[in-house]
Structures are given as structure tokens and as C-alpha cells.
Design goal:
Elements lengths: L9 H4 L3 H18 L6 E4 L15 E4 L18 E7 L1 H4 L3 H11 E12 L27 H10 L2 E9 L8 H6 L3 H8 L6 E8 L7
Parallel strand pairs: 1-2, 1-3, 3-4
Antiparallel strand pairs: 4-6, 5-6
């Protein structure tokens, strides 16, 4: 049975103070993750508010929803034709996350790279559930895909993690003043409780048995 896609308006939430904070953090992490990746063809799936390929120098770069329109789990590319696929929150927004990840594995070349971001179910941000009702409009009210589960999925498809980081430790207050007041938690969290960040960004490489480039 196909899972129901999340109903939260992520684009609207990204206009809030915590949303803007998350977007800025992810932009910096994705820029660093893709800047040193080489090839010819790169694709971004999800989160059009993020210009995830701006720091990459591949010749051909596309973003689904801006440069081309298609179903995410039926990409209009030949098998083993893309060098990089960026997936900012794409799995959380997908009706069938498994099918989407399999499709990404299909279109990537051997040793191709995938960069994935998602909300962390073991985060300090999740504490808001204790104080606010479900369905209040925050994107983590919907379906999480934890990093451990994601690692299992990637391993089964032949991917190997080669980088990643947690971030966004300050509580997701709706007030910019309160966000700024707790900004010190970003450095403290990264040092003392790194796995409790609100989001994660990971990079993985598609391995093919017996092949090294």
C-alpha cells in the first residue's frame, strides 16, 4: 500500500524564524557537501527553496519542479546516467520513500553521490511535542525517517556513507528574539550532544561490487 504523503506545508513553514534558520544551516552544509564533487550531470529532488547545486560545478544541473516536471519515483533519466542526486527532505515528502530511493540508485552512475537531508526523530526539536498538540503546523509533526533507518536503507541498496552532520539545536521558537537568545546552543549542541540536532545532512556513494574508479 502506498503511504500517504505529508500534509504539512513545508514551504510556508520555511518562512517562519525556525524555518529560515534551518534553511540557512542546510544551505551551508549542502554547499560544502557538493562543492568538491565532480562529474557532468546533477539533479536536485525536493525543497525548491534551497539552491542546493549552486556550489557545484557540474556542466548539467537540474532541479525537479523548476527545470523539469516529473514524478520523483519515475525520473526521466537513463539508468546510471547521473553523477550526483541531492535530496533535501525529499524522502519525507515522498508518498513512497523506498521507491524514491530505489529510483535514485537506478539513475546514479557507479561511484555516484547522493546527499540527503531530513528531520531527526531523536532531536531536541522533538521536545515540542510535549508542549504543543500534534498538527500544529510544524513539519516534524509528520513522518520522520531517522538516520539509523536511512543508513539501513542505503546499505541495502549498495550505498556507503562518506560524510554527514547534525545541526539546528536551538529550540524552534516562532519569535526571532527567542531564536537569537538561544543561538548559543548551536555550538554547545554540536560539541556536547551532536546526535540531538533537529536535522541531519548526509552524503553517500553508490558502490558497485568489484568496481573502484
Amino acid at each position: 500500500m502506498t503511504e500517504k504523503a505529508p500534509s504539512i506545508d513545508l514551504a510556508a513553514w520555511l518562512q517562519t524564524p525556525p524555518g529560515r534558520h534551518l534553511l540557512a544551516w542546510e544551505q551551508a552544509q549542502v554547499d560544502a557537501a557538493v562543492a568538491d564533487l565532480f562529474g557532468f550531470h546533477a539533479l536536485q529532488l525536493g525543497l525548491p527553496e534551497l539552491d542546493g547545486l549552486q556550489a557545484n560545478r557540474m556542466t548539467h544541473r537540474w532541479q525537479v519542479g523548476r527545470d523539469l516536471h516529473c514524478e520523483a519515483d519515475a525520473l526521466p533519466f537513463e539508468s546510471a546516467s547521473l553523477d550526483l542526486v541531492l535530496m533535501p527532505h525529499a524522502l519525507e515528502q515522498a508518498a513512497d520513500a523506498h521507491a524514491l530511493l530505489r529510483e535514485v540508485e537506478r539513475v546514479l552512475v557507479p561511484e555516484g553521490q547522493v546527499v540527503i537531508s531530513g528531520f531527526n526523530p531523536l532531536s531536541l526539536w522533538r521536545l515540542r511535542q510535549a508542549f504543543m498538540p500534534r498538527g500544529s503546523g510544524a513539519p516534524w509533526d509528520e513522518r520522520y525517517i531517522g538516520l539509523l533507518r536511512l543508513k539501513d536503507w542505503l546499505h541495502l541498496l549498495g550505498f556507503e556513507l562518506n560524510g554527514g552532520r547534525f545541526g539546528c539545536y536551538a529550540p524552534p521558537f516562532d519569535s526571532p528574539k527567542w531564536m537569537a537568545r538561544f543561538a548559543f546552543l548551536e555550538k554547545a549542541g554540536a560539541r556536547w550532544w551532536p546526535i540531538l540536532g533537529g536535522v541531519y545532512v548526509v552524503r553517500a556513494v553508490k558502490r558497485v561490487h568489484g568496481m573502484r574508479l
